[in-house]
Each structure stands twice: as structure tokens, then as C-alpha cells.
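The following record pairs a protein chain with its ligand, zinc ion.
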Amino acid sequence: MIAFHNPLHHRHAPVHEFFRGERVPCFEKPDRAQYVEDALRERGHDLLAPELDSQPVLAQVHTPRYLAFLQSAWSQWLALSPANAAVQPFPSVWPVRTLRSDVEPDNFVARLGLYSMDNGTPMAEGTWAAAKAGADAAASAADRVARGARAAFCCTRPPGHHAGPDFMGGYCFLNNAAVAAQWLRNQGVPRVALLDVDYHHGNGTQSIFYRRSDVLFISIHGDPCTEYPFYLGHADETGEGEGAGFNLNLPLPAGTSAAEWFDALEQACARIAQYGAGALVVSLGLDAFEGDPISRFALTSADFTRLGGRLAGLGLPTVFVLEGGYAAAELGTNAVNVLEGFETQEAVQ
Ligand code: OKP
Ligand code: ZN
């Protein structure tokens, strides 16, 4: 399968995140993408460098002030003190209900809170460079599909699906899957289905497309009553305005079996077929895996092959975008299983 990698992903390498009030090593680490790249090469898939600039499309899915902040965040942090080069910034205050988010404070940490949904999205010196190259890789994969490829994979980190129009969160900064979907729309695909199979609800992607009918968002994920991102992802969120009826959440309880997970996948596939999509974008989180350290679904490595095969059965040009998955050593096998399940099914059709 055509696969793009992110040659700058390693430049996003924060050291620690917060867990239960303590600083712990980051789960979202450079090894993750390395394992996927290694598995792709081992199994004969070439990796291409991004070949397009996602900037115009980023401006369609994120706000100007958020992009401006993110791009200059590290230099703003250093401007406070050169010693900050060795320190990770974290937000500590947020504009929740009744507070104003329309006025940007001058204080850096207050602005960081304005543009963050959590304190779990650590930033480092190369975060913008890595995130931007990842969005370029997503645009490149989408463009190949828009120009007739059956499928393409974007192997990148940091992930993107928690990043909303004007905020970062859940290890995500730029919404790569939204970039891919918007790219397909711009190339003339009238309706794009975006299926998110990451364990965590893709709140950012949902919010970006919530009022639109030209991108159908569907997510299968851990019930937000108990699972991150907690404040979005319920079944009664169905879209608004023009987008009413074009958002489908399929939350499942933590501990759900693979059989029940595949039942939800059937519901998702039925809705995609009914929608009449011209292309599919898959937010390919691999944390539904039984061995994932921060998630509680039970897919096996073989189940990821089955997932790829079922998606091929939709018969749609497909862009796969890597999201989460934290059992780092198994990520490569699980990612390539999806892609090869897809290609094998395609071959027998
Ligand atoms: C990102 B993606 C665990 C903290 C969990 C939020 C999880 C973000 C998941 N110590 N922080 O959807 O895989
Ligand atoms: Zn996840």
C-alpha cells in the first residue's frame, strides 16, 4: 500500500506527562511510529516523504489564532526565560463555562490553557515541526487517493483526532484525519465518510464537522462516562444544523469483547454504505488492542486483519491515518495487519 511517513515525528519528544498528579514518562513516544515504520518496511511496503503543503487545508479545519499560537508556542515559552528550554510547559487554568475564550490573555500559560482541553498534551521544541509534517503526510495520502489510488496510509505521530478547531488535547495538535477528509472534499469528492476506530472518542474531529453534512463522522469508542475524553462521544450527539444526522457515535463499555466491537463496526459500515460516500478516511487508532496499556477493549492482532478486510468490503477509496495505540512493540504488526487485511480482501473481490 502507498504509505507516507512523517520524517520529523521524532522532533516531538516531550519527556513526561501527568498521571494521577505525578509526572510519568510519555505514553505517546517516538518509538510508536518507529515500530510501525519498521513493520511496514519489513513487510515490503515503501515509505514516502510528504509531498504537499497542508497549510491551506489546515486553515479550513483550524482557526487562524490557534494555528498562530501553536506555530510560535515554543518561542513564546523560551521568551519567558531561556531556562525554559529544559522545561515542558503545561496549562494550569482553562476558560470553562462562564469564562471568556474570545480574548487572548497576554500570559503564556493562560493562552496555553485557552488552546488546550487538558494538561495531558505535553509540548516540546519540535512539536510544531512534527505536527505540521504529519498534516502534510495526511494531505499527501489523501491526494494520492483523490487522484485514483485505491488506498493510502499516513504513518504519523503525534496523533490528531482530539484536536478541535481551536484546541489541542489528548496528545493531539493538528487534526490529520480532518485534513485528509477536507483535502478529499477540496479535490471534488462530494461526500466523505470519516470512521474513527481509536479506543478514545475523536472529539476534535466530531467538533470540526459537527455542523456539516459533507463529512459523515462515525466513531466506535470506550463509553465517555468512564473513558477519555469524558465530555463528548455519547450516542445522542447526532450533528447540528446542516450536519443533523451526520454524526454517529457508537460508545461501548470498557471491557467490551471483540465480537461486540465487530457488531458496532457492522452498524458503522451500514451507515457509511447508506450515506453514499465517495471516499473513506479511517482514524486508525490501534488502542482497541487487548494489550493496550491505557485502554480496555480486546481486539487481537488477527482482529486487525479482519478490520482491514471489512473496510475493504465497503469498496471505497480509503485513506488510513494513524492515531493512538500504546502497546508500542505490537503497533507495527497491528497497523500492517489492517492494511494487508484491506489489500487481501481487495484482491479477492
Ligand atoms: C489519545 B488517543 C494516561 C493518560 C491518558 C488521555 C488519553 C489520550 C489518548 N496516563 N490521557 O486517542 O489514543
Ligand atoms: Zn486513543
